[in-house]
Amino acid sequence: MSKVTRGTIAGSILASSVLLTGCGLFGGEEVKKIDPPKAVTYVDDAKELDTNGDNGKTGQIANKEAGQGTVKTELYLIDKNGYVVPQTMVLPKSEGIAKQALEYLVSNGPVEEMLPNGFRAVLPAGTEVDVNIKDGEAIADFSKEFSEYKAEDEERILQAITWTLTQFDSVQKVKLRINGHDVNEMPVNGTPVSEGVSRAHGINLDVQNVADITNTKALTVYYIGGEEDNYYYVPVTRRVSETKKDNVAAAIDELVKGPSYASSLENLFMPDVKLVDEPKVADGKVTLNFNESITGSFKEKNKVSNQVLDALVLSLTEQTGIESVEIKVNGRAELVNEEGKPLSEPVMRPEKVNTGSF
Question: What is the pTM of this model?
Answer without folding.
Answer: 0.81
